[in-house]
Amino acid sequence: MGFNMHTKEAAEVKNQILTLSARYFSIVNSEKNFQPGAHFLPANGKVLDAEDLGQLIEASLDMWLTSGRFSKDFESKFAQFFGTKYCLLVNSGSSANLVAFSALTSPFFKDRALKPGDEFITPACAFPTTVNPALQFGMIPRFIDVDMATHNVTLEAVEAAITPRTKLVMIAHTLGNPFDAEGIAALCKKRGIWFIEDCCDALGAKINGKNVGTFGDVATCSFYPAHHITMGEGGAVMTNSPSVKKFAESFRDWGRDCYCAPAEEGTCGKRYEWQLGNLPKGYDHKYTYSHIGYNLKVTDMQAAIGLSQLKKLPGFIMKRNENFEFLTQELEKNGALRYFEIPEVIPGATPSWFGYLLTLKDPHINRKDILNFLSEKKIGTRLLFGGNLLKQPAYIHIPHSIHGDLKNTDRIMNSSFFVGIWPGLEKDMIAYIGHSLLEAALFCEGKKK
């Protein structure tokens, strides 16, 4: 580019740019006093600061654009935080699920490789991209119900659903509330079944002091703006297995066999000495493909923001949990919990709450009326993602089986929703949400009569 960042002049200009960017951020993001009913309170959101902007600009000044030094640094630091040996950055949480699943289809796993026609267990109450990779590959989902108390699957339900065709269990921790990943991991290991933990909504949640995502064979995370930290778009695949890491990296990077980083070559020391497949001996290893893959890498600008966000992650988790507890206290004080059920937590678990889920106790109260009331109060709400996926247009005719019934899933589909507790919400905002939930319930109760 003809731009030498190592010169004194370039360093001075860079410093001026970063200083001005921090000033700009403070000008356009000056705090405003919250006015109930006037300011919208979204169900989720991102918390960014001048440091995040500075990191983005610094990465942009490199003009590297694709994955580079910031990506490599994030992968190392995130793996350390998460508690796994490896982390691979991808361009979304959905891509993370695709890459994590695809790695387990590698023919190098021989008899353990997932194959079309194999069965996988997953809850019907789910986000689509927890299910889609295996479904699109040709595996057959075996759907199970969730427990109404936790809105998660139970170990007993998973065990009862296993058949001789079951080769995978793939489940998400619902809204940051852990399911019994420890027990399910032990069960899957005993039965020789792969286990993927989708932690996209549960970053930092723990079971007996250990991070969720570290129990299964592979885990996924999302850095979409709604999640615990953000890169705008972005996701990650985590594992302790060198083989899973190697194959996941291949699927992420076009399916190539080569493991050189971008713009590097000759890491193996024998770039033109390989003989793989039916290629001629000496065919360039950088253009040899061992899997039918994709290009799902993240950009360095995204990773740079992620590095800045990662420093603040413990505080974000703490604030989410504090907001959850504060809203619970408000609802207990004002009596609103006579109208709503809220999630319970399994023994030994420490949630990292994504949202505050409420389920109407009275089936005669119309959830739509509650949501419209809250919307008029400028309070954002969300449903629990796909509800019952088998009721969704895209899934009505898919090959599948169901173990037991899906009565709790159907109840959630009809009666549950969540409000925000993300770190951008302060106590006065949470208190307003709590008061408005009571008002909404009282209004709808009166309307019912």
In a few lines, what is going on in this structure?
The protein is of the alpha/beta class. It has helices spanning 8-28, 50-62, 69-82, 93-103, 128-137, 155-161, 181-191, 242-252, 300-334, 367-376, 407-415, 427-448; strands spanning 86-90, 119-123, 140-144, 166-172, 194-198, 206-207, 210-211, 218-222, 235-239, 340-341, 349-350, 356-360, 381-382, 401-402, 416-419. The strands form three sheets. It has an eight-stranded mixed sheet with strand order 1-9-8-5-4-2-3-14, sandwiched between helices. A four-stranded antiparallel sheet has the order 10-12-15-13.
Short descriptors:
alpha/beta; eight-stranded mixed beta sheet; 15 strands; 39% helix; 449 residues; four-stranded antiparallel beta sheet
Overall description:
With 449 residues, the protein is of the alpha/beta class. It has helices spanning 8-28, 50-62, 69-82, 93-103, 128-137, 155-161, 181-191, 242-252, 300-334, 367-376, 407-415, 427-448, and strands spanning 86-90, 119-123, 140-144, 166-172, 194-198, 206-207, 210-211, 218-222, 235-239, 340-341, 349-350, 356-360, 381-382, 401-402, 416-419. Helix 7 (181-191) links the parallel strand 4 and strand 5 (194-198). Helix 4 (93-103) runs parallel beside helix 5 (128-137), helix 4 (93-103) crosses helix 8 (242-252) and helix 9 crosses helix 12 (427-448).
